[in-house]
Amino acid sequence: MREDTRSRIQEIALKLFTEQGYEATSLREIAEELGVTKAALYYHFKTKEDIVASLADMRVADVEELLTWVRSQPKTPETRKELVLRYAAKLTNPRYLEVARFMERNQTAMRDHPKIHRMREVMLELTDELNDPGDPLAVRISRSMALFTLHAGKWMSQDEKLTDEEINEAAIEVALRLMEP
Amino acid sequence: MREDTRSRIQEIALKLFTEQGYEATSLREIAEELGVTKAALYYHFKTKEDIVASLADMRVADVEELLTWVRSQPKTPETRKELVLRYAAKLTNPRYLEVARFMERNQTAMRDHPKIHRMREVMLELTDELNDPGDPLAVRISRSMALFTLHAGKWMSQDEKLTDEEINEAAIEVALRLMEP
DNA sequence: GTCTATAGCGAGATAGAC
DNA sequence: GTCTATCTCGCTATAGAC
């Protein structure tokens, strides 16, 4: 029982965009790997950018939810720690992690894409919630690295002979250490 | 007394490639900003890729020098710390930092470019020198973030009302903390 | 060293048959 | 829902005059 075509396009596009870059990946390549012609793609997505938008949608709602939550909480060290943990929980969804990597690797190419632009904005606001403007610069740099370290820690560990659980815990450990004063 | 045309092409290309992305920046745009036609660019660089190669050259030699140095040293905590400090010293050259940012933002687009490929390779080897294979994963993740944190810490602080010296010290502080056990 | 003109290509996108 | 055929566009790169 195979997935529907729309999902397979997203899956293949995400893979190729991440490996080769967004601009370097043509619709012809995606179609070829899917086993159809590129004209068929246009039945499922109006444009190439629409494919990206559908990928971004996998993340945006999650992060906006976190942002809403954190803003309803008191700005305490405990809230910050909890935010890192909740973000890490979202990241246990492999699709989320893959989309994050795609965005990270194609930052500039995606510069004018509204959905991606919104995503960056939300991530910046989330990072802001981890920081007090009055803190020393070193503290702010350290805290601003926390969420990215969750991503990067997992990316770099993916081919280790370790369980997802172990990788997850290690990434969280480093991220939380970056949050300490 | 203005710079020669070749340097100005590099300068403009570096700026546009970083802001808009490599593929999204056409030679026409570069030429326009320079005030010539794109045909003129081909007198100074054989291809678009050659411009990138000339940019990469600004970094590769520096990093290879560091790699040679660190491999001539005993693998001690002191050597590692000194490597971070020496890398930070290279980063005080604004051009180096800009080229690092260009590469970071255009990773996938530059995937098949030999010079950029070599650069990534050397950076990975440099990061390897900061790690013992036997260390726990959390320690290895932490140490692997150190050099990148020097870049990112500076990028994110560039519009703060602080001196380069203060930014530099803060970034080093965070990077060294990531090196501690 | 810079210009005009253009070759040559592959991209995204569309029309209309099946 | 997928196909063939085609349009249009902008890009890299080159030829050759000045």
TrEMBL record, chains A, B:
It holds the Pfam family TetR_N. Transmembrane segments: none annotated. Residues 26-45 bind DNA. Keywords: DNA-binding, Transcription, Transcription regulation. The keyword Zinc does not apply. Coiled coil: none annotated. InterPro entries: DNA-bd_HTH_TetR-type_CS (IPR023772), HTH-type_TetR-like_transc_reg (IPR050109), HTH_TetR (IPR001647). PANTHER family: HTH-TYPE TRANSCRIPTIONAL REGULATOR BETI, HTH-TYPE TRANSCRIPTIONAL REGULATOR RUTR. This is TetR/AcrR family transcriptional regulator. The lineage of its organism: Bacteria, Bacillati, Actinomycetota, Actinomycetes, Streptosporangiales.
